Amino acid sequence: MSNIIQLKKGLNIPLSGEAALKVKKVVSPDIVAVCPTDFRGLVPKLLVREGDAVLAGTPVLADKKSPDVVFASPVSGTVVEVVRGEKRKLLAVKIKSDGRKVSEKFSPVEDIEKMDAAQIKDILLKGGVWPFIVQRPYGIIANPEIAPKAVFVSAFSTAPLAADADFAFAGEIAYIQAAVSALGRLSEGGVHMSFNADTYAKSPLRNIQGVKTHLFKGAHPAGNVGVQIHHICPIRKGQVAWTVSLAGLAAIGKLLVKGVYDVSRNVAICGPMALTPCYINAPAGLCIDEIQEHYGNMAESIRFISGDALSGRNVGMHGYLGFYDNQITLLREGDDYEMFGWMKPFRFNQYSTSHTYFHWLLEKVCPMRYDLDTNLHGGERAFVVSDVYGKVFPMNLFPVYLAKACLAQDIDKMEKYGIYEVIEEDIALCEYVDPSKINIQAIISDGIDLMLKEMA
Amino acid sequence: MNARKIVDTVKPTFSKGGKLGWLHSTFDAFETFMFVPNTVTTKGSHVRDCVDIKRVMILMVLALVPAFLFGIWNIGYQHDLAFGLGWGFWNKVWYGLVRIIPLYLVTYIVGLGIEFASAQIKGHEVNEGYLVTGFILPLIVPVDVPLWMLAVATAFAVIFGKEVFGGTGMNIWNPALIARAFLFFSYPSKMSGDIIWVGGVSRGAECWQAGNGVVDAFSGATPLACESLSDLSGHGYTFLNMFLGNIPGSVGETSAVAIILGALLLIFTGVASWKIMVSSIAGGLLVGWLGTLCGATDIPCWYQLVMGGFLFGSCFMATDPVTAAQTECGKYIYGFLVGALAVTVRLFNPGYAEGMMLAILLMNTFAPLIDHCVIDATIRREAKRTRIA
Fold first, then answer.
1. Which of A51, A57, A50 lies closest to A76, judged by CA?
2. Cβ(A152)–Cβ(A224) under 8 Å?
3. Average pLDDT in the B115-142 region?
4. Which of A236, A390, A435 sits opposite B328 (nearest CB)?
5. Does A14 reach chain B within 8 Å, measured CB to CB?
6. Cβ of B326 and A351 within 8 Å?
7. Nearest to A442 among B44, B50, B128 (CB)
8. How far apart are CA A108 and CA A97, in angstroms?
9. Contact A440, B55 (CB under 8 A)
10. Contact call for B44 and A441, based on CB within 8 A
11. How many CB pairs (< 8 A) connect A and B?
C-alpha cells in the first residue's frame, strides 16, 4: 500500500437528494436503447435491422474504424426502431425486451492466469464489453492494438450524489476480481486501484487481489480517475493508459466468470427532485420513463441527467441511461427570474463557494444541503477573476491557459498545458465555480475533438 | 411579481425586431441588473455557483466606499483649511459632495455611454467592469480637474484602454490608470504641482463661496513633493496625519485607514488577491529602506506606504484581476515589482513625484511575461516528475 495522496483543492457540492443505501427495485425495462452518442468520437456501423431478434450480448453496432469493437444489446428481445437524427446520424437503436433476460452463450474462462493477452482481448471484444475500457488521453474507447502503460480504476466516486461504490458493488467483488486479473495481463504496468482513504478500512473492495493500491484523501474531484492518474503517474505525449469503471469491471467479470453479457448495475436515483432517492438495479440503456415513480408527475419541470450534476448528460424525460453511468440525477429546471438576486446579502436557497456570499461561514456552523437548480445565475463574460479555478482543480495544470489554447486551436500549447491529462469531468468543477459562466467543459471537449482529428 | 410583469410587458418593444430594438443591449443591462435572468445551463455542468461577475464587481465598489466617503469629507476639510472658513462637519461634507458629484456624473455618463454603445454595436451584453472603473476614476484625480478633461480622458480610456481589446477581461492595462496617465501626460499643469490638490485653490475667483477666492501664500505641496523628513514636518505632515488621511491629495488616495478597511473587505471576500497587496507593500518597504541606506532620502520606508497613492494603488488597482498576473506565484513577483518600482521612481527620478501609476501600468504590461515564465517553470518541473507508481 502506498502513502495517502492528499488533495487540498476541490469541492464537494452540497446538493440535496442523496440516494439512501437501499436497492428498492430490480427494473426489467420494456424498452432499452444502445446509443452511439454515449461514446466519444464513435462512427457506428449498424449490424441489425428493425424486427431482428436479439439476445443480451448480440452485437448491435460496431465501430467503423475498428470493426472488432462491438456494442451489444443489453437485453433479449426485438429491435423495434433505429432512431436517426439530422443527416441520418444514428442516435439510438431501440430494443423491446421480451422480459426473459436471455444472454448469448459465451464460454466461461476456467483459469485466467493460463490465458495470454490475445485470448483475453478476443473474449472481451467478442463479448461486447471492450467499450468499457476507456483510453486516456481523450477518454475514447481503447484501441485494442495499443498496449497501455497501465490500467487505472477508481474504487470510489466523489461526484455530487454519486453512487456509493462500497454499497453498489458489494455484491460484485468476485466479478471485479476476475476482470482485474484479466486486465492485469493486458498491461505491463498492471492495474492500479485508488481508494478513498477515509473509507478504505471498511471498503469491501479492498479485498481485491493483484492490484496496486493508492489512497486518496480530499474533496471532489479526488475520485476522478484522471486526477488520480495525474498524481500516480502522469500521461505524457505518446503514452496511453486505460481506465475502467467499477460497473465496467463487473460486466467484464460476469462475461469471464459466467459467460454472459450482463450490464445491469445498481443505479442511484438522486437529486433534489427525486421523491425517494434510492438505488435501483437496471441495465445500461434503461429508458428514463421506467423510473417515473421516482419523480411523479412533474416531468416538465425536471432535468433528467444520466450521470452526475457536473458532467452528466441531459437526456430528457424519454432518454436513456448512459453506457458508463450508474447514477440518474433529477434537478429542477431553474427557468425563473430572481429579483435583485446578485445584490442580496444572503441567498440561502442557493449555494456559492465564493466568499462574497456567506455559505462558507454557514458551512462551518451548520452544514446544509441545497436544492440546486439548473439556472446559470448570470450571463457569460470573458475570463475576469483569475484564481477561482485553481482552488477546485487539484492537478498541476493551468486550466485557464489550457482553455485558451483550446479556443485558439493551438495544438502545441494544448499539449504543453496538459490536454493529454484531462477530460471534461476533471475540469467540471472549474465550470461550476466560474463567475464568468464560461462553458469550459465544452471548450475542452472541442479541444479534444480537435486533437483526435489532427492526431489521427 | 409586479415588477416582473411590467418588464415582461415592455420587453417585446426592446427586443430585436421591436420598435426600440436598437436599444436591446441597454434594456438587457437594466433587466439583468434587476433580475437574475432565467437562462438555464445548456452545456457542461448542470448546476452553477450563484456568484457572477456582477456580484464580484459590486463588492469591489463596496470596498471603495470608505475611501470615497472619507474623500468627500476631506475635500471639504482641505478647502476649509486653505480658506480658513471654520466650517462644521456637514458643511465640509456638503462641499465635498458638490465637488465630487460632477466628477462622477462625467465619468459614468461618458464611460457607460460608450460601454452601452459598444455593447449595442457588438451585439453582446453590457460588461460590468466599468462600474468599478468609473467609481475609481474620480478617486484618483485631483478634485479640481476640469470636467471636460476628465470626459476626454474617460473616453480615451474606455475606447483605447478597453474596448479596442474586446471589453472587460481582454484589456492589457487598468482602464482607470490609462485615463489618469492620459490626463497626466496631456495636461500636466492640471495633474501635478502644488496648488491643484485642494478643492477651489486652482480656480481662484470662481471659487464656490464668494469672497473666499483669494488665498495668500498657499502651499498645498503634497507629502510626495517633500524631499526630506524635515521638509515633511515643515509642511505639517506626520506619519499619523498621513495615515489618517486629512492631507491634500487625489480624492480617494489620502486615507490609509479607509483604504485598509476596503482592502480587508476585498481580502475577506476573496475578490482581490492578498498576495499582490502584501508583496507590493513588501517591495515598497524594501526599496524605501534601501533608499535610506544609500542616502537617497531620509524618509523612513514605512512613510512611503502612506504617502501619495501607494496604498490605494496596491490594494485597488494593482489587484485588478484582469491586468494583474494570473498565476499564484506570479502574483507575488508582480506585486513585489509594483511596490518596488513605485518607490524607485519616487526616490530616484526627480521628474515624477509619484511612481505608483507608472509602476502599475508597466507591470500590467509585463504581467503576461511573468505568467509565461511561471507557467514554463512549472511545466518543466512537472515534466521532470518521474514518480512511477
1. A57
2. no
3. 88
4. A390
5. no
6. no
7. B44
8. 25
9. no
10. yes
11. 210
Closest residue to A436, CB basis, from B36, B53, B378: B53
| Local confidence band at B178 (pLDDT 50, 70, 90 cut-offs) | very high
Q: Which residues contact A117 (CB under 8 A, 6 or more apart)?
A: A147, A185, A186
Asked if the model's pLDDT at residue A226 lies above 60, the reply is: yes
Residues 6+ apart with CB under 8 A from B330: B367, B370, B371, B373, B374
In A, residues 217-236, which contact B (CB 8 Å cutoff)?
232-234, 236
Residue found under cell 445498481: A266
Q: Does residue A147 register a pLDDT over 50?
A: yes
Quickly list DSSP for B153-182: HHHHHHHHHTGGGTSTTT-SS-HHHHHHHH
Burial of residue A114 (CB within 10 Å: 0-12, 13-18, 19+) is exposed
Residue holding cell 483604504?
B259
- Do A261 and A57 form a contact (C-beta atoms < 8 A)? yes
Query: Residue B387: pLDDT band by 50, 70, 90 thresholds?
Result: very low
Pairwise CB contact (< 8 Å): A378 & B56? no
Q: Cβ of A314 under 8 Å from any chain B Cβ? A: yes
A234/B385 touch (CB, cutoff 8 Å), yes or no: yes
Q: Is there a cis peptide before residue A74, judged by omega within 30 degrees of 0?
A: no
Long-range contacts (CB closer than 8 Å, 24 or more residues apart) made by B113-122? B114/B155, B114/B158, B114/B159, B114/B163, B115/B158, B115/B163, B116/B25, B116/B26, B116/B29, B118/B163, B118/B167, B119/B25, B119/B26, B119/B29, B119/B167, B120/B22, B120/B23, B120/B24, B120/B25, B120/B26, B122/B167
Please indicate if any CB of chain B lies within 8 Å of the CB of A189.
yes
User: Mean pLDDT, chain A, as a whole number?
Assistant: 92
Closest Cβ–Cβ partner in A311, A350, A436 for B45 = A311
From chain A, the residues in CB contact with B388 under 8 A are 233
Tens of pLDDT, residue by residue over B83-102, are 888 889 999 999 999 999 99
**Is residue A396 within a helix (H) or strand (E), and if so which, with residue range?**
none
- DSSP E strands in B10-75: the ranges are 35-36
With an 8 Å Cβ cutoff, are A233 and B389 in contact? yes
3-class state of residue B383 by DSSP: helix
Residue B369 in 3-state DSSP?
Answer: helix
A441 touches chain B (CB under 8 A): yes
Q: What is the pTM of this model?
A: 0.90
- Out of A214, A310, A417, closest to residue B45 by CB: A310
Dist. CA A388–CA A75, nearest whole Å? 45
In chain B, the percentage of residues whose pLDDT exceeds 70 is 92
CA dist A101 and B159 (Å) reads 69
Helix/strand/coil (H/E/C) assignment for every residue in A295-335: CCCCHHHEEEEEECCCCCEECCCCCECCCCCCEEEEEECCC
A414-418 contacts, C-beta under 8 A, 24 or more apart? A414/A447, A414/A450, A414/A451, A415/A237, A416/B379, A417/B375, A417/B379
Kindly report the nearest CA distance between residue B123 and chain A, in angstroms.
13
Distances (CA, A) of A314 to A154, A320, B59: 24, 10, 34
Residues of B in contact with A329 (CB under 8 A): 46
Cell of A41: 468520437
Q: Is B51 within 8 Å of A356 when comparing Cβ atoms?
A: yes
Contact B378 A431 (CB under 8 A): no
Residue in B with minimal Cα distance to A151: B389
Spatial CA neighbour of B115 closest among B175, B51, B52: B175
- What angle do helix axes A399-407 and A440-455 make, rounded to 10 degrees? 60
